[in-house]
Design brief:
The structure holds 3 protein chains of 3 kinds.
Chain A lengths: L2 H9 L9 E2 L5 H6 L4 H6 L1 H15 L4 E2 L5 H7 L3 E2 L7 E2 L7 H6 L9 H17 L5 E6 L1 H9 L1 H10 L1 H24 L4 E5 L8 H21 L3 E5 L8 H4 L6 E3 L6 H8 L4 E6 L1 H6 L2 H15 L4 E5 L9 H11 L1
Parallel strand pairs in A: 1-10, 2-5, 5-6, 6-7, 7-8, 8-9, 9-10
Antiparallel strand pairs in A: 3-4
Helix pairs in contact in A: 4-7, 5-7, 7-10, 8-9, 8-10, 9-10, 10-11, 15-16
Chain B lengths: L2 H9 L15 H11 L13 E5 L5 E4 L2 E3 L5 E3 L8 E2 L21 H12 L4 E6 L4 H8 L1 H10 L1 H25 L4 E5 L11 H22 L3 E5 L8 H7 L3 E3 L8 H8 L4 E6 L4 H4 L2 H15 L5 E5 L9 H12 L6
Parallel strand pairs in B: 1-6, 6-7, 7-8, 8-9, 9-10, 10-11
Antiparallel strand pairs in B: 2-3, 3-4, 4-5
Helix pairs in contact in B: 4-5, 5-6, 6-7, 11-12
Chain C lengths: L2 H12 L18 H10 L4 H21 L5 H24 L7 E6 L7 H12 L3 E4 L6 H10 L4 E5 L3 H4 L1 H12 L5 E4 L5 H7 L3 E2 L3 H12 L1
Helix pairs in contact in C: 1-2, 1-3, 1-4, 2-4, 3-4, 3-10, 4-5, 5-10, 6-8
The chains are: A alpha/beta, B alpha/beta, C alpha/beta.
């Protein structure tokens, strides 16, 4: 059975007692594992894909991904982004500073712009290298996350309160670009679109419902229309949002270590695959024996449920190789 | 929305996103591109083209290596130019139809292509593509120089010859339409060279236009959209093409007309397919130039409706594969929502 | 210029071949280039004058009209036909040396390309302007051009191509021609050919229309 078939069976609720899928979010770790700098990983799709494949083969992960940093779309919108050797790319400027800026902001041509094109090429390269045997997770920024990238987190969070027009105009544009970016990655063979909207863990459910929920849902529906599955990723504690998130219709929900997996299961329901949620700090700092125990506990709890074993968020660059391997081994 | 629906939307002057496009290859270009990709390549699937063409100019009999006989019994030398070829010998050398048998439009290979395209590409806009429609068909029978001289010296004969060809074409359209699945018919007839009309507007209006109108009427009676392909500097005939009912004109060559200006002048009356130079930009431009020209077409024309993106001819074997790949990537990944 | 020479020029310009020819309709029944040339010779006009002050003038006029898109290929073909019919009467004088042509022009469509109508138009116009034309046909290799130059010392060469795919063969042929005969002028033309391309490969002359080629060739012998 290919990993793609294994994933399809999980989607359909099959083999829940016997098969366990493994998908840690690997970015900087994967780059280091292939002796590449993060600059190379984030700026050249070939490097990103090869690093992913090498890690996938070594750690026997079940899915691969195109995630690298939040500034692909931001760069396409016109912001200057720099690439430190060993850190996540940095956005050098805030480009939406006023209502006028928000109104004037143009949705970019994603294939024309270097950074978004690079990810689309990455999707194509994954398809060529893996020939459809391994599910590929593309990546887009969620509407609030992208708005924060463009306007600044603090500013954007305040604008939702003091100038809803500004927030709405900007986020509407983010939705357009998110949908387009998702469509193009699916066109090139991505099976799943990951949507990162981490900042949502920092807002209350009222604000989430007023500004974010419908927009996320619009994107998720559109990805489904395009033939893709959706993995919603909001790191941090989203226990307070679960009651709303359950309506979004995503296929996979990433849950960080702060969220109680049982409660999430009860609120979200059994149809959504939950992905998580061992604390990445513990994955880095524990012994491999401790990790085997933690993994075993998670798996026991998730037996018979739709679940993918993973860290609560990205695996840190300094995580010992044997620690990650311990999770894989004990989840088999 | 299916590709067919998008295509129709665009040629009926409605804004359509993504901008529909058509990319076609000559044999030489397809072979080169395929070997560049190092794998299989399907012209329609791998480009994402919006239209398929069931062509009358195919399914010919190879009578000896490199020589093919068409349905009119004309032998074409394809030893050098494997896609177009050139007439080996003209069957008529005196202004008389005596002894020349026009073919019947029954049981042609193109009917099988129509069925095949119907089943393989139900979502695409489907053209019956009649290559060598009228003027070209006539000169393929008598030779171009004879045809042109006889238009002046033996007009009765030329009228007779063209009438016979039109009868055949109309029957061909009707028989093809019976199969079902067609959305349009595309006439292929080069009336112009790089610098201007070959026979001029007066002779064209005398010999070609009334017959083109008859064929258009026959196609409209079958509810088909009408495409007209004509290479060369043919701008002066566009009002006539509009008058007879052409819906979409190609190849819209930037070397011979100011395509942006022409588009502006006629937008809403006829739609255009083509625009990316296969004489300059694609064979000799850098990847950047191909990219710039493609985006300009998509941004300035595609954004308005009435435009189908396409190279200004089937791609030729001298075009660097890198340039083809760039163009395909750009049209496949359109994301600028107008 | 005598009246009859002007009439001959007029017949060539308007494609009136002979009295019988129905074209052009407004000259129906009138004498054509054929009869008028014969008549001119009979009245003792110099063959050279008939050529250069009659026929060539007519060809020049049609060439200019063609360049200006005032007439089209059919009309040029008719003019060429009128011209060639008239020239039949002058052939004996070419052979005897009484009439000198302006020079010899070798023309062909380059290797790989089988298209000939553009080449034929240039050929007719050049011939109609008093040059002897050696037409090598289509798909002509560098060797054939070189051999033709050897057979016709002092000649000049025209290369034609319709396709961008074959246009590139001009460069190779040009090199071979120049290596064998540096003084031979090489003219290029055809739909995709441009001044830029001419400069790039180092040809001597490019014209988008046949009349340009005629004028250039005439300038070489002026």
């Amino acid at each position: 059975m290919t990993k793609k078939q294994k994933f399809d069976r999980l989607l359909n609720g099959m083999d829940l007692e016997t098969a366990k899928l493994f998908r840690p979010i690997l970015m900087h770790f994967a780059a280091r594992f292939s002796q590449k700098t993060y600059r190379e990983f984030a700026s050249d799709y070939r490097v990103l894909v090869e690093c992913n494949i090498k890690a996938m083969e070594y750690f026997d992960t079940d899915l691969v991904g195109l995630i690298s940093d939040p500034y692909r779309e931001t760069s396409a919108f016109g912001a200057k982004v720099s690439f430190p050797d060993e850190a996540v790319p940095k956005c050098e400027e805030i480009i939406v500073k006023s209502l006028e800026d928000a109104k004037a902001l143009k949705n970019p041509d994603l294939y024309k712009e270097e950074r978004t094109r690079d990810r689309i090429e990455g999707a194509k390269y994954f398809a060529k290298r893996l020939k459809g045997d391994i599910p590929v997770i593309g990546w887009i920024e969620g509407p609030l996350a992208e708005a924060c990238d463009l306007a600044g987190v603090g500013e954007m969070l305040m604008q939702m309160m003091i100038d809803p027009d500004f927030a709405n105009i900007l986020m509407d544009k983010c939705v357009v670009t998110a949908k387009e970016f998702a469509r193009l990655q699916i066109l090139e063979g991505c099976d799943i679109i990951g949507m990162g909207d981490a900042i949502c863990s920092q807002i209350d459910i009222g604000t989430y419902d007023a500004f974010v929920k419908e927009r996320q849902k619009e994107i998720i529906d559109y990805v489904h229309e395009c033939g893709g599955k959706v993995k919603l990723h909001i790191c941090g504690d989203i226990s307070h949002l679960l009651a709303s998130i359950k309506d979004l219709g995503m296929d996979i929900l990433d849950l960080d270590w702060q969220v109680d997996m049982d409660i999430a299961h009860d609120v979200i329901g059994p149809d959504v695959i939950r992905c998580g949620n061992i604390d990445p700090v513990l994955i880095q700092n524990s012994s491999s024996e401790q990790l085997e125990i933690m993994t075993g506990e998670t798996i026991k709890k998730e037996m018979g449920r739709k679940h993918i074993i993973s860290g609560g968020c990205e695996i840190t660059v300094n995580t010992p190789i044997e620690n990650l391997m311990a999770i894989r081994k004990s989840s088999n | 929305m299916t590709k067919k629906e998008s295509f129709i939307k665009a040629i009926t002057f409605r804004k359509c996103f993504p901008v529909p496009y058509v990319i076609r290859f000559t044999i030489e270009a397809e072979e080169r591109y395929q070997s560049f990709l190092g794998g299989t390549f399907d012209e329609i699937l791998d480009t994402g083209s919006y239209a398929v063409f069931s062509q009358t100019n195919s399914g010919w009999l190879e009578v000896r290596p490199g020589y093919f006989k068409d349905y009119f019994g004309i032998t074409w030398n394809k030893t050098k130019d494997r896609t177009l070829g050139i007439v080996d010998r003209y069957p008529i050398d005196k202004p008389s139809l005596k002894g020349f048998q026009f073919p019947s439009a029954d049981d042609l290979p193109v009917f099988k292509y129509i069925e095949r395209n119907n089943s393989c590409f139900p979502d695409h806009f489907h053209f019956l593509s009649i290559g060598f429609t009228l003027f070209e068909r006539a000169w393929s029978i008598v030779g171009m120089e004879n045809l042109m001289q006889w238009m002046l010296l033996e007009p009765e004969f030329v009228h007779d010859l063209l009438d016979n060809i039109v009868e055949y074409n109309i029957k061909l359209i009707q028989e093809s339409a019976k199969i079902g699945g067609l959305d349009g018919v595309r006439f292929g007839d080069d009336w112009a060279g790089q610098n201007g009309l070959l026979i001029g507007g007066d002779l064209w209006r005398e010999f070609i236009k009334p017959r083109l109108m008859r064929m258009c009427d026959a196609a409209k009676a079958e509810n088909l959209y009408i495409g007209q392909h004509c290479c060369g500097k043919v701008e002066s005939l566009i009002p006539d093409m509009i008058e007879v009912g052409i819906d979409v004109f190609d190849p819209f060559q930037p070397e011979v007309m100011d395509i942006y200006d022409v588009f502006k002048s006629f937008n809403g009356k006829i739609s255009f397919m083509g625009g990316l130079s296969i004489q300059k930009t694609l064979p000799y431009g850098s990847i950047k130039e191909v990219s710039d020209a493609s985006y300009k077409l998509l941004d300035e024309l595609g954004s308005q409706g009435g435009y189908i993106f396409s190279p200004s001819h089937a791609l030729t074997g001298d075009i660097p594969p890198e340039n083809i790949r760039e163009m395909i990537n750009i049209v496949r990944h359109q994301s600028k929502n107008f | 210029m005598s009246e009859i020479l002007e009439k001959i020029a007029y017949c060539v310009e308007f494609g009136k071949i002979n009295q019988q020819s129905p074209y052009p309709p407004d000259m129906k029944g009138q004498l054509g280039a054929d009869e008028l040339t014969k008549e001119a010779l009979d009245t003792g006009l110099a063959p050279e004058d008939i050529l250069k002050k009659g026929l060539v003038i007519g060809m020049e006029r049609i060439g200019i009209k063609f360049r200006e898109n005032k007439v089209f290929v059919p009309q040029v073909l008719m003019s060429a036909k009128a011209m060639s019919t008239a020239i039949e009467h002058l052939k004996p004088f070419f052979q005897s040396g009484d009439v000198k042509r302006s020079g010899i022009f070798i023309i062909g469509t380059v290797a790989g390309d089988l298209h000939d109508i553009g080449k034929n138009l240039v050929s007719m116009m050049v011939e109609g302007n008093g040059w002897e034309v050696v037409d090598l046909g289509t798909d002509v290799s560098a060797d054939k051009f070189v051999n033709a130059i050897k057979d016709n010392p002092g000649s000049h060469v025209g290369l034609s191509a319709l396709l961008t795919t074959t246009m590139i063969n001009m460069e190779h042929i040009l090199k071979e021609v120049k290596a064998a005969s540096p003084e031979t002028r090489v003219l290029i033309g055809g739909a995709p050919v441009s001044e830029d391309f001419k400069n790039k490969i180092g040809a001597d002359f490019y014209s988008p229309d046949p009349q340009g080629a005629v004028e250039y060739l005439n300038s070489l012998v002026a």
